[in-house]
Design a protein that fits this description.
The complex is a heterodimer. Chain A is mainly α. Helix content of chain A is about 70%, strand content about 0%. Chain A has 6 helices and no strands. The radius of gyration of chain A is 16 Å and the shape is globular. Chain A starts with 6 loop residues before the first helix and ends in a 10-residue tail after the last helix. Chain B folds into 2 domains: about 65-165 and about 250-260, Rod shape-determining protein MreC, domain 1 (Thrombin, subunit H, Beta Barrel), CATH 2.40.10.340; about 170-245, Rod shape-determining protein MreC, domain 2 (Thrombin, subunit H). Chain B is about 40% helix and about 30% strand. In chain B, helix 1 crosses helix 2. Classes of the chains: A mainly alpha, B alpha+beta. The interface between A and B is large, with 53 and 48 residues.
Chain lengths: ~170, ~260
């Protein structure tokens, strides 16, 4: 059984996080990698509010990402929706209250999302000069690691914001 | 239980349908996309200034907290001094940009960076000038320290520039020391890769690289960066080099768009 979230609360946090991603996160790049706040939140909503909310958050974030970036239109909203859906379906089968599970789920979701993104982009845009190992070691792993570490900081804040610990169903 | 499974299958089918629809009509979204960016341009500009301010006063805020109880008055003066310094910095930077603008042999349009790519995959900037200021697609974008990228989408009030660190951008380049050519493309991690360097080339780390001016987008002789590493890929008949751009592209605040 998953918790319920009010729509306005979901959208306020989604838009706020998107603006931070768009305007601020480049300032905290380490070795060319920046954390992906959007995937972190998609996984959070999927874990604690279920696959439907996860997919909805993924859809909204993906659409915003597609609009403001120069990426292939549609790739992000599709992949982020699927990420939210899959993370939401998988989370009840895992011990989601554990911090390690949460961090690993964020890391795995980020890695898979970016690998699939790499293949879709390579196929559609015919990028031949950047190989998968280059992407994996230069971007995917550092950025996913960074995102997973950020989840250690943000998940407790979000859990207390939504008072998930007080919810008996969560415990 | 059955209903739940049905709903999940329906969602997956909807996602597959969305992919097909997206691939079919993605080109139609280009104009919609730039119009949305355009409309939100002024809001982004203000928010960007606000975030810029937050970044600037962050170390100062820490100082203020530390001394708050004992040095209220000193804090006030220190803040004023800090703000003056920040204004001086801005002034020096803008003066530098103005001097540089006078120095380069091209006509250019100065623009402010108001947003960055939210995606990790592509590298782009949103600038506060659009077609109403004379910006057109395929204009080269430079900064005081070298090449930045090119305009890919130009709206009325804002535009998007693809950076040299994006794998979709290709630039014809020359190595300054030995005048040998290659093609520069973006690479993950804020670096670029030069391919098609001939096998007998004596290219080495530290060599400066500039635009070759072969195509119609980038003028000749704009500095791009410095070679960091040289290598040869298996099964290819050319060398490659990894290039470090002459500036940190994630920290850019102002750029110049070249009118050729």
């Amino acid at each position: 059984m998953h918790n319920k979230i009010k729509r306005y609360s979901l959208y306020i946090i989604l838009i706020g996080a998107f603006l931070i991603q768009l305007l601020f996160l480049d300032h905290i790049k380490i070795a060319g990698a920046k954390p992906d706040l959007l995937i972190l939140l998609v996984v959070f909503f999927a874990i604690f509010f279920g696959p439907s909310t996860g997919a909805e958050a993924g859809f909204v974030y993906g659409l915003l990402k597609d609009t403001y970036s120069l990426d292939i239109f549609g790739v992000n909203f599709l992949l982020l929706s699927l990420t939210g859906l899959i993370a939401g379906i998988l989370s009840p089968k895992l011990f989601r209250e554990s911090k390690l599970t949460q961090v690993l789920l964020v890391f795995a979701s980020s890695v898979l999302y970016m690998i699939v993104h790499y293949f879709v982009s390579s196929f559609i845009l015919n990028i031949r000069y950047v190989t998968l190992p280059e992407c994996l070691y230069g971007l995917i792993l550092p950025s996913s690691f960074y995102t997973a570490m950020l989840s250690l900081l943000l998940f407790p804040l979000l859990i207390s914001r939504y008072r998930l610990k007080e919810n008996a169903e969560y415990l | 239980m059955r209903n739940k499974k049905k709903r999940i299958i329906l969602k997956i089918l909807a996602a597959i349908f969305a992919v097909i629809l997206t691939v079919l009509i993605s080109s139609a979204f280009w104009s919609v996309r730039i119009n949305i960016t355009d409309t939100s341009g002024p809001i982004l500009k203000n928010l960007h200034s606000f975030f810029g301010l937050l970044v600037k006063i962050n170390p100062f805020a820490a100082l203020e907290k530390e001394n708050k109880l004992l040095h209220d008055r000193v804090d006030l003066l220190a803040r004023m001094s800090e703000e003056t310094l920040a204004i001086n910095d801005d002034n020096a930077r803008l003066r530098n940009l103005l001097d540089f603008r006078k120095m380069i042999p091209y006509t250019s349009i100065p623009a402010q960076v108001i947003g960055r790519d939210p995606s990790n995959w592509s590298n782009s900037l949103i600038i506060d000038k659009g077609s109403s200021s004379g910006i057109k697609t395929n204009m080269a974008v430079i900064s005081t320290r070298g090449l930045v990228g090119r305009i890919v989408e130009a709206g009325k009030l804002s535009s998007k520039a693809l950076l040299i660190t994006d794998p979709n951008l290709k630039v014809g380049v020359l190595i300054r020391r030995n005048r040998q050519g290659g093609i520069l493309t973006g690479r993950p991690g804020g670096r670029c890769k030069i391919i098609y360097i001939s096998l007998d080339s004596d290219v080495r780390p530290g060599d400066k690289v500039m635009t070759a001016g072969f195509g119609s987008v980038f003028p000749k002789g704009i500095l791009i960066g410095e070679i960091e590493k040289v290598g040869k890929e298996d099964g290819r008949l050319y060398k490659y080099a990894i290039l470090k751009p002459s500036q940190d592209l994630s920290m850019l605040e102002e750029v110049l768009c070249i009118i050729r």
